[in-house]
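Notebook B, p. 112. Complex prediction, attempt 2.
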Amino acid sequence: MKFTQFFTITMMMSLTTMINAQQQLNPETEKKIDILMSKMTLEEKVGQMNQYNGFWDVTGPAPVGGTAEQKYENIKKGLVGSMLTVRGVSEVKAVQKIAVEQTRLGIPLIIGFDVIHGYKTLSPIPLAEAASWDLKAIEKSAQIAASEAAASGINWTFGPMMDISRDPRWGRVMEGAGEDPFLGSKIAIARVKGFQGDNTFKSPLRIAATAKHFAGYGFVDGALEYNAAEISTNTLYNQILPPFNAAVDAGIKSVMTSFNTINGIPATADRYLLRDVLKKKWGFLGFVISDWASIKEMIPWGFSKDENEAAKSAVEAGTDMDMEGGIYVPYLIDLVKTGKVKQEHVDDAVRRILRVKFELGLFDDPYRFLDEKREKEIIGSKANREAVLDIAKKSIVLLKNDQNILPLKKSGQNIVVLGSLAESKNSPLGSWRIAADDDTAVSVLEGLQKYKGNSLKYVKGLEITKVEPTFLTEVQYNMTDRSGFEEAKKAAKEADIVVMVLGEHGFSSGEARSRTNIDLPGLQQEFLEEIYKVNSNIVLVLTNGRPLSISWAAEKIPGILECWQLGTETGNAVAEVLYGDYNPSGKLPMTFPRNVGQIPIYYNHYSTGRFMDKDNNVFWSHYSDVDKTPLYPFGYGLSYTTFEYSNLKVNKKSFAKGEKIIVSVDLKNTGKVTGKEVVQLYLHDEFASVVRPVKELKGFELAELKAGETKTITFALTDAELGFYNHQHEFVVEAGTFKVMVGGSSNAGLSMKFEYGN
Ligand code: NOJ
């Protein structure tokens, strides 16, 4: 409200350090580190700050660490603290043995890997999982990923990615939790818990996690990969940082810097973010790793004159480990010896790295993650497959269901399945799955074939890509070959229902996969329209790693199911939902635009000074060519049943500051089958010292109701939900009028107002 009426609470920022139970020093460990560090030479210390890529699975430009032999030699010299993408018990053992048995001090390596949505048994891509809004299932999924990776000798994952992004052109939205900081924070916590368990690492099946990419990578200009980001204080503090802060509070062990610059400073040299905010204000005790060669990349950015300067800027800013950049070992030693870099920066970095190694139990037993028997038992187990099937079903979002075209009847129907993605066993695995074997997903077709009651025919009709892509090749869509159209049209004409599996190949999203056009790529739109001409009874099964613009389909096609890339069990999950054995409950974690020109489009935008409707005149906030609303809003998703919201209540009309606000709503399942609904609560602060978004998600609950059942759902709101960061980076809660909105999407239907702190 008015400036004079606001009161500032410093709870969020400074209390974080004070009450952060998960970032506490253990005096015994610190003592052990003191003793070890007192024996280390400067070279050995800088060695701990060096990470090499293994000898395969390159996930960046050509490695600079040298040949395998040179790397082995450097491990022996104590010049390597960590390896990435070494995997499998025997391989990890081979390198770990060198570090432990052939170096002067025997300090074990920490082995890192991109365990992004599973190791060998794959869960849905992270964006899909976010659509489940099911925190327990998300935690379980990370736990399974951790257990398989740990059983393969890995100690540390480069995930979860928690970059908030409002730009579906950016390929990496598939790795995150979407556009919202509240949902993103809850999911970040669930994933950290899944990977790290209770943070004691007593179990050899939990691994250290990494909050990445710190910070602002989801806001790169034009969604162009590795680009610059210009970010306001408002956006940085209220949108981008909250999930990272939440992950630190949950006890995360490492943080990875991002490739972008933020307001002109490369994130890897951002002293303010790394030292002042992350390490000091938030009390983070783990270590910071650069992204792949991002220290070296400060040279082409035009920030560092040469490698010496790059090393100096990065270490001074607080980047503790150099991922495959080859910068710290050759330059940092001399920089310290000549007094150009303070020894204390190196000591701080090494202490942090050693701390995590101690916490992981690597000093007690460097081979504790290396057990061949466990490796065989755990990786790909039946239990793991069942768990990823569960989260896969929960990730599916029903976007449209006119005349209840879904679920499919179990018998007596003539169904034709079209599109090469239907038979793909590779694309459903999605991007970032370097430990999984190609072609190991259950395809949509295989899933459907398990239902025997209908006549099921598959006609490819369209090969969506020219050649099968890989993680390291650009996807080339088929732009010319229509030779299968006629056969597909013939089959479609005779069918009761046409299931068309269209979208993006799994390798169309992920790192370095930005697109400027997010329509159905290649000939797919044309194919869809051709089939529609002969039979409009189409169920569109979308598989994609980002929101797509599908305005034509949204208008014409009666059934649309958003199936993303669901991992190993894709086909089984999709078939169960299509046939109604699982009632979909997913809700979009990112807005679907009508077309690419609306981007960035997001639900928690500001109001404008010209909010009036088009009846007034032309000078109002709108587009001349397209409705300004999204095609499908954040939080949207249907079910095979229907829900009715009523009786929204706030326990009082007016609250004193610090008082808890209790909001309740009745939810009724008004349909014929049991279903789950994500009940969402949004808040709007009507007047504030900084303009507030029209609504912000501040609570959600997943409720399951039998047909006809009513449940009362209750939320408690505190200052943490009511406040925001102002331009002075302070968390403030201002007195005033708040509007609370509750419903099944960000277009929440019911609303009420209450006064707070007046
Ligand atoms: C670059 C990516 O940006 C990062 O997310 C990943 O963890 C590293 N490469 C290692 O593969």
